[in-house]
Design a protein that fits this description.
- This protein has helices spanning 7-20, 24-45, 58-69, 84-96, 99-111, 119-125, 134-180, 182-191, 195-207, 226-238, 243-258, 261-268, 281-306, 317-330, 346-357, 367-382, 388-391, 396-410, 412-417, 424-435, 469-483.
- 62% of the residues lie in helices and 0% in strands.
- By secondary structure, it is mainly α.
- The protein is globular.
- The model is unreliable at 118-132, 376-392 and 491-498 (pLDDT under 50).
- It folds into three domains: 13-117 and 154-216, no CATH class; 243-357, no CATH class; 394-495, no CATH class.
Length: 498
């Protein structure tokens, strides 16, 4: 009897049919909204370290939960306000919101759904449909499907193994450093932070490219601990920009060692695997070269402009080099910092805005590979009709311009009365940082007020912490939009600026 005609089979069939028609954008949006709301409730019912003298507002707690879940690290509350239990909840939010973990969940879900393209198309494209007998064709289809399903299953294990190895290895080395180096240990004791909680929180935050650190000063307080910065920099790259390249390299090594056909299938049929971060060997190499090329350009410009600035006062030449490298590595998607961004030159801030805007998947592919991808995308678009809503989709820059305009409207009184802090460059920097899910912020300084307010007190949270409720809500929308930006305009067309 056909499983589809039995009741359990019918339920599974209908479930697969319904889920297969749901756009993955809405699944991701529902995921981030739901977990952010649960995270807010967890932060709300637990007491902060500063209770009962200070209790964060509900909007600030929700903002913090969204910021952790979207890996944005935009802050409206000082980090040392949160208790150890609240830091644990934030660690969970950052982990389950990490791009590597979310992409693994998406791969797992896709593997349970029926394929959108007929399997005959894949067999033809791979050159496997060479037999004319219907019986042989069915056998070929079944063998190909089994091989593909096995490869997808093993790919899921590879991604989980990658997560475990990088996080456990990074946490072990980080904990060893803060336990053995006296200067780092003293800082943690002074701030009342447990070494294990601090290490796990920071490594998860860095790998997920969130950028939260349990200290008010972020990593500024550790800027002379160059060894600690060296431990964190690989975590930044392995968790985002270099993840596709490293994943391809891991699969390549496993293929050579094990000689299993599943790994060879992953490398040869990377598009059929349906995993966004599984690229071809050529694409992976060019992506890695692009990442290091942009880092080199940033590093040279940053050192040229800031080497003798006040931000680097008190550092040795070696500490300046490591600190500068750490800063530029974090300018794409992590947001940890060792220098006060508010005193950096405007040219550096504009450079960071450009880097924060660029997607992590950007690579300078040779023209022949770009033309090949363009032809494939064009063929797919011709096969489907655009809906009315899809035809109304604007570019990324359009949405960002609208967001900046709305925030300028909500903060117009502050722009008028406090123009040195509330200037358009600082607002733009904050919006692009939220959109890029980076977390860089120029902060707020009472010293820059034209009309000094006697009750003004300098704090260590981000510039958005001084905004109105309307401005904060707008930035929450920007953070969600930034986290889901790859779903807009087929994940790439809107990045073209011409």
């Amino acid at each position: 009897m056909n499983n589809k005609h039995s009741f359990p089979g019918f339920i599974l069939f209908m479930q697969s049919r319904i889920v297969s028609r749901v756009n993955f954008f809405w699944i991701h949006l529902f995921y981030y909204l739901t977990i952010s709301s649960v995270g807010y409730l967890a932060l709300r019912v637990t007491k902060p370290r500063t209770a009962p003298s200070f209790q964060p507002e509900n909007l600030d707690l929700f903002f913090t939960s969204v910021s952790a879940m979207t890996n944005s690290s935009m802050s409206t509350v000082e980090m040392e306000v949160f208790s150890n239990l609240q830091l644990v909840f934030m660690t969970i939010l950052m982990f389950i919101g990490a791009e590597v973990f979310v992409s693994w969940l998406e791969l797992h879900l896709k593997s349970k759904l029926p394929r959108k393209r007929p399997i005959e198309n894949d067999i033809t494209e791979l050159g496997l449909a060479t037999l004319s007998s219907p019986q042989n064709e069915n056998s070929t289809k079944n063998n190909f499907k089994r091989s593909l399903d096995n490869s997808i299953k093993i790919l899921g294990y590879v991604i989980l193994g990658y997560l475990v190895v990088v996080l456990v290895g990074g946490t072990s080395v980080f904990l060893l450093y803060v336990s053995l180096v006296e200067s780092a240990t003293e800082i943690l004791k002074r701030k009342g932070l447990h070494p294990v909680t601090f290490s796990v929180f920071t490594i998860v935050s860095t790998f997920s490219n969130c950028g939260f650190v349990p200290t008010n000063e972020n990593m500024i307080v550790f800027r002379k601990n160059s060894g600690l910065l060296w431990v964190l920099m690989p975590q930044v790259l392995l968790g985002n920009t270099l993840f596709p390249s490293c994943l391809w390299l891991v699969i390549r090594v496993l293929s050579k060692i094990t000689r299993r056909v599943e790994f060879e299938n992953m490398l040869r049929n990377h598009k059929e695997m349906g995993y966004f971060y599984l690229l071809s060997g050529v694409h992976s190499c060019y992506l890695g070269a692009t990442v290091f090329g942009l880092l080199f350009v940033q590093f040279v410009l940053f050192c040229s402009l800031e080497w003798n600035s006040a931000a680097m006062d008190g550092l040795s030449i070696y500490q300046k080099v490591v600190g500068s490298l750490f800063e530029v590595v974090n300018s794409r998607y992590t947001g940890e910092y060792v220098f006060d961004l508010s005193i950096l030159s405007s040219a550096v801030l504009v450079l960071f805005i450009v880097m924060m805007y660029l997607p992590p998947s950007i690579s300078f592919l040779p023209r022949r590979y770009q033309e090949e991808d363009s032809r494939k995308c064009q063929l797919r678009e011709n096969d489907k009709k655009k809906s009315f809503m899809e035809s109304l989709i604007l570019s990324q820059l359009s949405y960002l311009a609208i967001s900046i305009i709305i925030i300028c409207i909500t903060e117009r009184d502050r722009i008028k009365n406090d123009p040195l802090n509330f200037n358009v460059l600082n607002i733009t920097f904050e919006v692009i940082s939220a959109y890029g899910n980076v977390g860089f912020s120029t902060g707020y300084s009472c010293k820059r007020q034209l009309k000094r307010e006697s009750f003004c007190k300098d704090t260590s949270y981000g510039f958005v912490g001084r905004w109105s409720a309307g401005g904060k809500l707008m930035l929450i929308i920007v953070m969600f939009f930034g986290r889901l930006k790859r779903f807009n305009m087929n994940g790439g067309k809107s990045w073209k600026l011409s």
